[in-house]
Design a protein that fits this description.
By secondary structure, this protein is of the alpha+beta class. The protein contains 10 helices and 8 strands. It has helices spanning about 25-30, 35-50, 55-60, 110-125, 135-145, 165-170, 175-180, 190-205, 210-215, 255-260; strands at about 1-5, 10-20, 70-75, 85-90, 220-225, 230-235, 240-245, 250-255. It has a 4-stranded antiparallel sheet with strand order 1-2-4-3, covered by helices on one side. Strands 5-8 form a two-stranded antiparallel ribbon. A hairpin with a 6-residue loop joins β1 (about 1-5) and β2. The radius of gyration is 20 Å and the shape is globular. About 25% of the residues are buried.
Amino acid sequence: GRVHLFPGGETAFYKRIAFEDLEHAQEKLRDAPHKLVRDAKSYHVVGSFLLSKGCDDMVKATGVRIPKCYDAQLEPNDANPMLSKFSFLLEDLSPAKGWYQQWLLCDLEDCKAALSSFAKIHAYFWTGSSFWDDANAAEEFEESVWESGSYVQPEAQNWNQCKIVAEEWAKKKQRFEKELHSFAWWDDLGERLESVAEGCGHLAHPFADETLSAKYQKYRTFCHGDPKAANLLFRKAHSDLEVGLVDFQWSGFGLAATDIA
C-alpha cells in the first residue's frame, strides 16, 4: 500500500508478501505445489533485478521509467516455500503525480509509447550490445533474472497445459459462438491448437531449451515477461506521454517479439 512520509508529504509504495497469509498460496500448496517454488523465485527476481547495476544503468541510458527500489527484504524458503516472505519499498508512481492506468490499451498513442519503452529495454540488453562489455554487471544480471523469462512460457505453467487445449476449448467455445461459428474451423479449433501448442511454446521461449537456446542466441535479450496493461502506467508530460513499467516477477531472457506479442 501507499506510505506517506513526513515531513514533506512524499509517498512510497510498500509491498509485503507472506505466502502463509495468502489464500491463493494455500490453494497452490494443495493443487500445484511446484508453483509455490516458482512464485517464491519470482519475487526474488523482482528484488534482484531492481537492485542490479544492469537495471540502474539501463534506466540512466534509455530514460525508461521503472520505479526505484529503496529497499528489498528477500526471505525465500526453499525447504518450505509457504514460509517465504518478501517486502519491497518502491518509488510511488501515484495518481497525485499524474500517473494513471489504462485497463484496455485502445489508444494508438498509448500503444506506441508502451512499445517504445519495451523496445529501448530490448535494444539495451540485446546480445552483442555494449552492456555485455561490463563483465561484472553482466554476470550479476545473468544471476538476477530468469534464464527463460515470461509468465506464459510452458516451463512456468502446469506440465499438461498443452495437452488440455481441446478439452478447455470445448468447455468455453460457446462464449465465442456469435463471433466465430461461421468459420470453417469453428468445431475443431481446439484440436488444431492443441496439435501445435507444445511446439509453438518451445519456439516462442527458446531459452528454456538447450538446443534451441544455441540456435536463437543472437536474438537473445532481456524481456519484461508479463507486459499486460495492468503492469503499465502512463503520465502526460507536456507533449510527451511517459510510460512506467512495473511488476518484473517474470522478467528474464527471451525474444523481443514474444515479449510484446
